[in-house]
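Treating backbone geometry as a discrete language has practical consequences that deserve illustration. Part of our work consisted of pairing the sequence of a single chain with a tokenised description of its backbone. We regard such an encoding as a compact summary of how the chain folds. The amino acid sequence and the backbone structure tokens for this protein are reproduced below.
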Amino acid sequence: MAHAVSTPAEAHGGHCAGHGGGHHDEHHDQESMKMFGFWLFLITDVILFGTLFATFVVLRLNTDGGPTGAELLEMNGIIISTFILLTSSFTSGIAVLEMNKGNKRGLIFWLAITALLGAAFIFLEVTEFMHLVHEGANIGTSAYWSAFYVLVGTHGLHVSVGLVWMIALMLQLGRRGITPVTKRKVGIISLYWHFLDVVWIFVFTIVYLMGVM
């Protein structure tokens, strides 16, 4: 009976193939763990914002005789800010579509548009805070304004972190292009941005619409 004999080259090739497959599986597992870690982060953020919303609702009438939201909040600027942030969610979705097409330039372009819209949102929010402070409503004026600044400011801080994150990702995409790692990062920043939009809808409804009614 004839026996098949493996040549050294075949044995080496089989070893390399096994090693390559193991390396690929290990990389896939690392990416999955990083994605799982991001979802855990989002869950903790949901708990954080849930606590801040509950605190605001409890303290919304405690103005200590000072100015109320109905007196000072200017809805025209808030509506513009809301439109800007919702538009940025749309542009971040277009960026993901361009990434799935393999279009690096289109991906970076739409991420840049998203970042510009996010920066405009932050600018308007800072302008609003400066106006409120000028009108005598700072974070120490009353429990209502303390809860207002902490809730709205925490959301603004998250948007600012997202902006820095997005700019760093654009630089990385410019150097490395679209890879499995950068695809995962783009997917995460897009989810994060959509999450901030959902939170802002609650802020707009509970803080601003209820505040002026």
